[in-house]
Every structure is written in C-alpha cells, then in structure tokens.
Write a structure and sequence with these properties.
Strand content: 5-15%
Radius of gyration: 25 Å
Number of strands: 2
Shape: flat
Structural class: alpha+beta
Strand order of the largest sheet: 1-2
Order of helices and strands: HHEHHEH
Length: 164
C-alpha cells in the first residue's frame, strides 16, 4: 500500500496543466480499482474455501460423534450447526408480518425486517419449542467450527517460523 504522502505528492505537481493532472489521477484510479477488484475476488474465493474447510471439519467431528477435539498444537475445534431462516418463494411481507404478529413476534416488524433480527427472533421462537411453518420459511443448517486457542497457536507457530 502506498504512503498517503507519496500519493499526494504524486498528484500535486506545480505548473502541470489540468489535463495532465487529470490523466494521472484517472490512470491511478483505474489501475487501483482494477487491483481492488482482483483483491476482492481473491478474498471472496478465500472466504468460500475457508467456509468449505470449516464445514468439512465440522462434518468430520460430527461423523465421529465428537462435539470438539483437543489437538496437539493447542487448537480445539468445536462443531456446531448454524441455522439460518429464509422466506419461502412467493411469501410476501404481508404474509410474513401476519404470521409474526399472530405468534407474538410482531415487535420486530418495521418497514423492513432486518435479516439478523429475523434470524434471532426465529431462533428464539424455535428454542421455546415452537415449530416454524414450512410454507413460510426455508431453513438451512450449515455445519461450521468455532476455533478455540487461536491466539496461543498463532504465537507459537509465529515464534517457530521466526526461529527457523
């Protein structure tokens, strides 16, 4: 990442015509946007790969009948299921709001119901023993991992890398 002073000095050239300054700035902007798009794309791919690895590790633990496992390096992955709720195709906000109101969840109704608010309210609704109507909601259960011991593990591996 370039130093802000370097960027400022690069474009504050005295006695340069406006066209040249504009061309320099435009060139920088186009190249910078292109690099950011490349970085964003790579970041998105890395996040998708990371999520897939977390799912694989969670499934591995679940299939072995384990909730968590203490590993030699100090990491302790713990499997969990994260549930997300989605309206069924064709369900209007009016239908959703009517159902929420009938089930004492109308307090979250605003001109729009925010995704995280809906997630939390429906999770609590189910935890109270209630069942969500399948004609209104799709559910998606995704195995994932909460990793404990990361700080110590990274300190240890960084120290080992530095010593090598």
């Amino acid at each position: 990442m370039e130093d802000t002073n370097t960027i400022n000095s690069m474009f504050n050239i005295a006695n340069e015509p406006i066209e040249k300054q504009a061309a320099q700035l435009a060139d920088f902007i186009v190249k910078e946007e292109s690099q950011i798009e490349t970085i964003d794309s790579a970041l998105k791919q890395r996040k998708e790969n990371l999520d897939e690895c977390k799912t694989q590790l969670a499934k591995l633990l679940i299939q072995a009948g384990l909730e968590s496992i203490k590993l030699e390096g100090g990491l302790t992955p713990k499997a969990k299921i994260v549930r997300k709720y989605f309206k069924q195709a064709g369900v209007t906000d009016e239908m959703l709001f009517e159902w929420l109101s009938k089930n004492d969840l109308g307090g979250i109704i605003r001109p729009t119901v925010y995704f995280n608010t809906l997630q939390s309210a429906l999770k609590d609704f189910e935890l109270q023993g209630n069942v969500l109507p399948s004609e209104l909601f799709n559910t998606l259960d995704t195995p994932t991992i909460t990793m404990f011991g990361k700080s110590k593990y990274l300190q240890k591996t960084n120290a080992e890398t530095s010593a090598a």
